[in-house]
What does this fold into?
Amino acid sequence: MTSLFSFQKIAFSYLKKSQFTYYLLNSMVMLMLSMSAAIAKPPPIQLATNYRQDIDVTQYYVSEKLDGIRAYWDGHQLISKQGNVFTAPTWFIKSFPTTAMDGELWIARQQFEKVSGIARTQDNQNEQWKKIKFMIFDLPNNRTSFEQRINEMRALVADTSSPYLQMIEQQKLPNTEVLFDLLNKVVMGKGEGLMLHHQDALYQTKRSRDLMKLKKFEDAEATVIAYLPGKGKYEGLLGAILVKNEEGVTFKIGTGFSDKERSNPPPIGSLITYRFTGKTNNNIPRFASFVRIRVIY
It folds into this structure.
């Protein structure tokens, strides 16, 4: 059945009652999650910067950038980037060490929606958690160099009997050419990209230049402010969303949506992740494409 929707003057018709209820409830949930995240205390984690071409690649350890959910183990519980506790089953975390660990809840490449759905459940007996692994990439409270922390992580995982705890592989590369060959291989295999971490870096609870992400496409977040009607085969469905990004730039995104998402678009006011390739002289993201609704944990 054709979906028709509108919250603003630029929209093209009226929502059917059931769809209106759906969008309204979604918007309320997003608001409640945002308020919850604001109340929670985020853990002290390190954030990455974008790849810089002026570096000596041989001084960095390289790993795959996993498309999972960031999680912080404080020695007792798994905490989200926003500071909310994941309701992980006792059997999932019972063998974890008391050492603080930083990592990703992950299943496999292109399985973000699945891991996201499992992690959001409030059932601490959810058997679906057996599909997830906590892939660690750092030790926040360890004050040694990253190279030394790698050895500590390997020993930690080896000494832990948990089948749900693993370490993300770290490797050294000889030059930039090999680095980009690896990037192409990962992307062709449906991976997201690479992370580069300086061998001598300490763990810093801020955005660090010693930790970089390298992707074929950049991504960012924006807030949905309006819907634009579809034309041709998308007549009566979503054509594009009008968004405003963190820099205050307003632009439209018309690609990346499935037919289901065009029938049930991201709620007005929700935060979405989009992918792009560079920017115009007016600072508008080029070839912006919808990736997913940004779920706040």
